[in-house]
TrEMBL record:
One of its GO terms (cellular component) is cytosol. Residues 1-13 have a biased composition (Basic and acidic residues). GO terms for biological process: cytoskeleton organization. InterPro entries: Far11/STRP, Far11/STRP_C, Far11/STRP_N. It comes from the Eukaryota. Signal peptide: none annotated. This is Far11/STRP C-terminal domain-containing protein. Residues 384-751 form the Far11/STRP C-terminal domain. The lineage of its organism: Eukaryota, Fungi, Fungi incertae sedis, Mucoromycota, Mucoromycotina.
Amino acid sequence: MSQGKAAKEKQHQDPLLTPGHIKQVVKALPSKIKHPHDRYKYQDTEPLKQEIDEFFNYSEAAIDLPDYRREYNRYFGSPWKTTSDADRRSGLELLIDQLEYVQANRRISAAKQLVYISLGCLGDGACDCDDYLGTILANNQLLYESGALPAFYQALRRACAKHDALNQQSSDIDQIIEISIEIELYLSLLYLLIESRRQAEASWEELASLTPSMIEFLFSVIAQLREKYVKSFPYKKLILLLWKVMLAAFGGLDKPKSLKEDVKKLNGFQFMDKVDIVAKCTPLDLYNFQNESVLKYPAYTPPKFPFPVSETLTIKATSALASAMGISSATANTDLPYQALFPPKQGQPATQSITKKQSQINPFAPPQQNAFALPLTESQPYVPKSISEAGNLFVKNMHMSLSTYQIIHEREKAIHKWQNESKKQLEENDNITDVSEKIKRLMNSIEHLYHTIMPELQNIIIVLLKLLLSTVTNNSNGTGNAAKPTHNPNSIEAQEEIDATRNHVLKHEYLSQLLVDSGCLLLILKILGLQEITALVAAQTDRSDHGLFHHFYTKKEESSSTEEILYTNQRNMFWSINFLRILQMLTKRKTNRVMLLVQYKSSVRISCQSDKTLAYCHKKAILKRMLKVSHPVLELYTLKVLKSQVPYLGRRWKSLNMKIISAIYLQCHTALRDDWISKIDTDTDLEDGMAQEINLRILIRMYNGQHYMPSMLPQTDDTDTLSISMRQSIPFITEDMKDNIELDPEFMENYEKWLYAEVYDSEDDTEVPEIKQSDVDTPLPSPILSAQTMPDTLAMEIQRLYLEELNQEFNETSEMYDPMRLGPQPTTEATFDQEVLTLRLQQVEKRTVERWTILESQSDVCI
């Protein structure tokens, strides 16, 4: 009896003591069997043998490559292994020169022989696999030393130019197919040469010196495919070559992490880099906390932001920010194309149903508008201590990312109309001295690449997504086919392209915007929904007996005595993780885009319908099915995408998916203000998400228009040149207003000449109306100003007159707000219409000028 009781007590131990106990409890829970694929290592490149085998399909290995060998034996003569080094070099130089021949058959024959040599003569005379790979590396090194890289590149450019001419002339299809074969040979030569040298970690000075840049040229070729006949064009090899060139020039997926500090220095970002913070908070979290606290406790004085920011208004996208930036009309006229082009397919819009679900009040949640409990603080006797502690905790755990800093900086520039751009640019250039020359060249290369391809980026995205859709629909079953399955290089290309634009966040956001507007989110969900993920990542689609190395390397390696527990299809696992990463990057901290995933039912089980447009859902939640595969990287990004949707999925979904919620807590980082599981007021999030998306799009237009394409600049409002402090605090003017007024340095140097020329010595024949003492409630100043008055005194006197007129104008209808005053406060100042407020400010300015003119005339009379 006692043993049974002890066993029960042991079973009911508190599982929430430590994260380790939680993990043990989760593992012990009864669940469906997962498919373990932990042995697969997620990386953007594989060994040279596998990369070459992936590049050539099975038909090429069986038919085309033996033809290349026969072509070599017909023209070259002696076997490559028995040829001396001098004869090899002379033979290679002869073949490279033949690529410039006018006759197409001579060029194609020379290219086939060069491919045969670049492939290590297909293993002729090799003792083992390592010897074969060594021959490939040695032959490509010899080609590189013979000047093959610029020769192959120029031959590819000539062939692509001829392909363009044939398409424009609507020539015979046979001619287009012939030139496409030639282009494919040049792509193969460049791929083998670049990948072999990249795997050997060789230097790439010559690759960077090509004019025009190879990356820029390949992107331009992809952009032109939108209007071309692409049925016979080797687009797969084109994209794979572009991927390898980007890896060689910019590095792989791990490169952005190592460049993070250098990019910060280039952007002048040398603060708020607290890597040891466990629970981080963003400037937007602190901004929202301060606004909520001040509304509940008007006497609360929030702590200052722990980073240099001229205006807190730039932290959050609001209508006030749009007015300060002068983009109110542009904001009102900006629409979101993806909402109209890719609406939800079933029932009412998801936003309405989700809002209806979230409108149900949680009886266990505390009222959001009630004040916090006591005790009160000693320094601020009308503020609870918990509020003060929370504000200090937000400041202590503040983490500003480089992307957040760049967006705030761009908003400040928009507010000040880029008046201080030259000054800020000089300040930023001072930090570049701390960066090595190699990093400078890399950053300049990325900048030049973006500047070149930005006008064609829309076409590039459309071509990649179309090719991606076609390759997936052709292999939608996901099981073994007779032909080699598609590698899906477009997912790799999109991932690399997103990473390559991250030296400034608005470049990355522009690419993300194009992907979302082109339906990338829906396409990825459709691709993942068409497949059964557990069968996809375990499908043995590779046929080793049809591969390149099987055909030309007869000495097989000894097979391993032990077999893997579960086969992992590395290709399918790789692009599945890439798709999830793209989903996460496109929707990270963007509520409006997260709602697209919710509308597409990516996380919710749906009923079976006959509509073929919903066939991709497979009657199950797409993202939940991804969790059936046990792999740390795949699970992490699946949970990240699910976490962003949880606040909008309702209580029923949460109650039925507590295992997923527990996994999110265990795998994903927790922020300081992480209320994703208990959020109730989602309507505000939806409104803020819409404002954030529109403001981001206008920022993108302003950034690209300022630096690359002036036609993208949005139309600005016709507003007064008041400072942002005046716009933000009117009718409550403070002494801080003068700190935000910035004058031209040239004017500051020559202000005395301007005063004598425009003020003291100017002859004004206009009659100044006399202002009596009764007309103005402020007495005239007793001292008479003279021409020798100091400039600071003049500025202070003008400012004093302006403040007196301003206070008189607005004190007639409202009292000044006293933050330390108890009881109700006057609220009439919040009812001012914008047009009325503008007219009243103009009257204040006019009366100030009239008073100053009178004082000036009196000063001239006294003199």
